[in-house]
Amino acid sequence: PFIQDTYLVNGVLKKWSGEFTSVYSTISSTEEYAPTLLGSIPAMGEAEGNEVTNAAFEAYDNGQGLWPTMKVIDRIKCMQDFVTQMKATRTEVVKLLMWEIGKSLADSEKEFDRTVDYIYDTIEDYKELDRTNARFTKSQGINAMVRRGPLGVVLCLGPYNYPLNETFALLIPAIIMGNTVIFKPAKHGVLLISPLLEAFKSSFPKGVVNIVYGRGRDVASPVMKSGKVAVLALIGNSKSAIALQDQHPNKNRLRLVLGLEAKNPAIILPDADLDLAIQECVAGTLSFNGQRCTALKVLYVHESIAAEFNKRFSEKVDALPFGNPWEKGVFLTPLPEKDKPAYIQELIDDATSKGAKILNKKGGEHSENYIFPAVLFPVNKEMRVYHEEQFGPVIPVLSFKDIQEPLNDMAESNYGQQVSLFGRDIKTIAPLIDTLVNIVCRVNLNSSCQRGPDVYPFTGRKDSAVATLSIHDALRSFSIRTFVASKDN
Ligand code: G3H
C-alpha cells in the first residue's frame, strides 16, 4: 500500500504522525471489483486546518507578502519551474489516476496532458492580461493605469472525477494571480497529489501553497471558521459549498468560485441525423461512466423517432467494452465510490416500480463496484432519476410531442449548465437557440456537452455554478481590478 505521510505547510514537507484514513481502489485483477486497500492518507483535523490557514495568511501578509508583491515575470518563472517538474511525474500520476478513480488509461493520460497545457495557456493569458493592463487610459482629465491584484487566501477543493485537471483549474489561476492557497485534494484521487508535493514545495515561496488531507468537516471547517479565507473555490456539490460558506464569520467578504451540479439534457428533434445523435449520446451519457458534471443526464427524444432511437441506442450501450482502466479499448470501468452502485440500483428500482422499463439487455448487471448502465424508458417526473443528478451509469429517456415540453422542463429545473440539440433544419434550430441560451449557458449543436476547450467559458445558471472557469475568466475570478490615477495638470 501507498502511504502518504507528509503534508506541505509553510514551505516544509512535514512528517505526519497522527491517525491515517484508508484509501481503497475498486479496480482489480479479479472479476469482483470489490474495494481493496490502496494506501492511506493523514486524517487531519482542527490543528492542521489552523496551521495551514496561518501559513497561507502570513505568506499573503495582507497583500504585502513576497508572493503578492512579486513581479509578474518572477511569478511566471515559478509557475514554469512547477510545470517542468510536474511533467516528470506523468507516469506515476497517470497510474494513480487509474487505480484511485478507475479512469481509463487513455482518459487518464488526457487528463494529465490537458492539465499541463492548461498551465502553459494560463501563463500565456496571464502575460497578455498584464500587457493589456499596462496601457494608460484617459477619461475626463484623469489618467489611469489599471492593474489586477490578488484577493488573499484561497481555499481550493476539487472533485474526484477530475482530481488533477479540475482542481488545477482552480489552483493554478489562484496561485498565479498572487493569492496564497490551501488545497485539500478530493477523497478519491488524493494519493496522486503526492508525486507533486516536491514540485509545489520547491517552485513557490514558503506558505504560497499549503496542502492538507482529511474529511472536509474536520480539516476544511476550521479553515473557514478562521475568517481568513478570501475566496472559496470548490468544484463539487452545492451542499458542501453552502455548508462551508456558512461557516465563514464574515460571509459578505467571501468571494465564491463554484462549479456545481448539472442535469444536462439532450433534445433529439425528428429530423436529427440518428447515427450522429446516438454516437454523441452514448459518449455524452457514459464517458467515465457518466461521472462528469457535463454528462448528458436526461434524453428527450421526439415521439416520432423514439422507438428507433431507443432500440439502436440501447444496442450501442450494450456493446460498450467494460474492464480495468489499462485494458485496451475499455470504455466502462468500476466506480470509485463504494456506495454508488447501490444508489444507481435504487434509481433503477424506483423508476421500474413506477412504470419504466430497462431497455438494454445488460442494464443493471453488477458485481460489487461495477454496475452496467441501464437505459430507462419511459421516464416521468414521478421518478427520482428524472430529478436527481445521478452522476453515474443510468440513463433516463423521455419522449416528447411538442418542443415546448423539454423547454418548460429545463426552465423549471434547478440547474442550468448546458444542452445538446440534435436536428438538421436551421429554421427550427435558430429560434430554439435564442430560447435555450437564456436557460443554460452553452448550447451544443449536434454534439454532446463538454467543458472544454478551456479557452471557452465554463459556467452555469441557478444551482449549477457561481463564477466562470475558462482560463481567461478564472484569472479574473481570482483577482480584483485596481488602478493608479493621476490628474492632468
Ligand atoms: O465534471 C465536470 C467536468 O467539468 C467535466 O469536464 O466535459 O471536460 O469532461 P469534461
What would you say about this model in short?
The chain has 15 helices and 25 strands.
Structure description:
It comes from Flavobacterium aquatile LMG 4008 = ATCC 11947. Pfam families: Aldedh. Residues 27-479 form the Aldehyde dehydrogenase domain. GO terms for molecular function: oxidoreductase activity, acting on the aldehyde or oxo group of donors, NAD or NADP as acceptor. This is Aldehyde dehydrogenase. The protein has a seven-stranded mixed beta sheet, sandwiched between helices. Strands 10-9-8-11-12-24 form a six-stranded mixed beta sheet, sandwiched between helices. The protein has a three-stranded mixed beta sheet with strand order 1-5-4, covered by helices on one side. It contains 15 helices and 25 strands. Helices cover 37% and strands 23% of the residues. α12 links the parallel β18 and β19 (394-400). The longest helix is centred in the first third of the chain and has 29 residues, at 105-133. The chain is an alpha/beta fold and 489 residues long.
Search tags:
seven-stranded mixed β-sheet; 15 helices; alpha/beta; 489 residues; 23% strand; Ald_DH_CS_CYS; Ald_DH/histidinol_DH; 25 strands; 37% helix; Aldehyde dehydrogenase; binds glyceraldehyde-3-phosphate; Aldehyde_DH_Superfamily; globular
